[in-house]
Amino acid sequence: MGWNDELLDRLAAQVPCGYHPNGPASSEPTALAALALSAANRPATAAIDWLAALQQPDGSIGPTETQSQPGACWPTGWAVLAALAVGRGAGRREFDVPRAVNWILQTAGDPTAGIDESLKTSTLVGSAWVTGTYSWVEPTAIHMLALKAAGFGSHPRTRHAEAMLIDRLLAGGGCNYGNTVVLGQELRPHVQPTGLAMMALAGQASSDRRIARSLDYLTANLLAETTSASLAYGLMGLAAHDRFPADGRNWLQAAYRRTISRDGAAYKLALLSLAALGTNGPLITLPARQIGARGEGRGARD
Q1: Strands 185-186, 181-182: pairing kind
Q2: How far is CA 44 from each of CA 88, 93, 139, 172, rounded to the nearest angstrom?
Q3: FRET pair for 145, CA 20 to 30 Å: which of 233, 259, 283, 290?
Q4: What is the helix (H) or strand (E) element at residue 126, kind and residue range?
């Protein structure tokens, strides 16, 4: 049995799963597990059933069954991607993708809310961690991936997300979590948000040089010792632009061994399995297949 098959066995045993073995079941790791399992032709209906049970009347989904902060519905994009990958009607309860997409289209970050004026570098609108707060790189990238996968690659909200992500790229490549400059100082790039941003921006028409520089940043900063989640996101960002490194799978195998020697967290296992698929991963193929499929969906509003 190969390491990825062993990983998938461990992952399947944890669904619905959390960020840590003893933590509560959470939407993001459960959706990522569904993506990883379905990509390996393994049953993922239990994950979709659990996500569907959490879906709210407005189409959104919170982080856990006992969501503590109203409006913290950023995992909705992950649930859309998982449901599209597994297939409609796959579980006992169907996750309503059109309703979830409509929620994403109607919900945006507020460029004037929740952050000190001195920290703001742009008024471009993307997606927020919590409804009504400032736009950040990671939720914007997640929802952009979901919109592209659902066929909304040409929708104005997807275009706005693209513009915001490019705006948040640093001059030398890579991005931080939200801004480029704080108190006159350029921030340092980080691998995880850069990888997510590169995944979301794959296949877009922009020729902004910061995209190529960001890919160069990932190439230069991914190592065998890179932490599991950052390694996975960085490799997926490179794979989305057909730049998966020759040693990538060896790094992922080493990261898997480290993960199971510590806590075997499903969140990390799912990400490692998805990254090991290279250019065939669903977080790359789903959005790529649907880019520009239609400008807007039935009932969707800008």
Answers
A1: antiparallel
A2: 12, 12, 24, 40
A3: 259
A4: none
What is the C-alpha to C-alpha distance for residues 63 and 80, in angstroms, rounded to an integer?
14
The answer to whether the beta carbons of residues 39 and 80 sit under 8 Å apart is no
Phi-psi region of 151 (alpha: psi -120 to 50; beta: other; left: phi over 0): left
Radius of gyration of the chain (CA): 18
Whole-model pTM: value is 0.91
Spell out the domain ranges in the chain. Answer: 3-290
Give pairs for 47-50: CB < 8 Å, separation 24+: 47/15, 47/16, 47/82, 47/86, 48/82, 48/83, 48/86, 48/90, 48/91, 48/93, 48/94, 48/95, 49/91, 49/92, 49/93, 50/15, 50/16, 50/25
For residue 24, give Cα distances in angstroms to 17, 21, 29, 127: 7, 8, 11, 25
Strand partners, 144: none
Tens digits of pLDDT across the chain (302 residues): 699 999 999 999 999 999 998 899 999 999 999 999 999 999 999 999 999 999 999 999 999 987 656 689 999 999 999 999 998 655 567 899 999 999 999 998 876 654 545 444 556 889 999 888 888 999 999 999 999 999 999 999 999 999 999 999 999 999 998 887 776 777 799 999 999 999 999 998 888 999 999 999 999 999 999 999 999 999 999 999 999 999 999 999 999 999 999 999 999 999 999 999 999 999 999 998 764 444 444 334 33
Residue with tokens 């649930």: 79
Neighbours of 217 (CB within 10 A): 24
Q: State the Cα–Cα distance between residues 161 and 181, nearest whole angstrom.
A: 19
CATH architecture of the domain with range 3-290: Alpha/alpha barrel (1.50)
Q: Give the distance, in angstroms, between the CA of residue 109 and the centroid of all CA atoms in the same chain.
A: 17
CA 28 vs. chain centroid, Å, equals 9
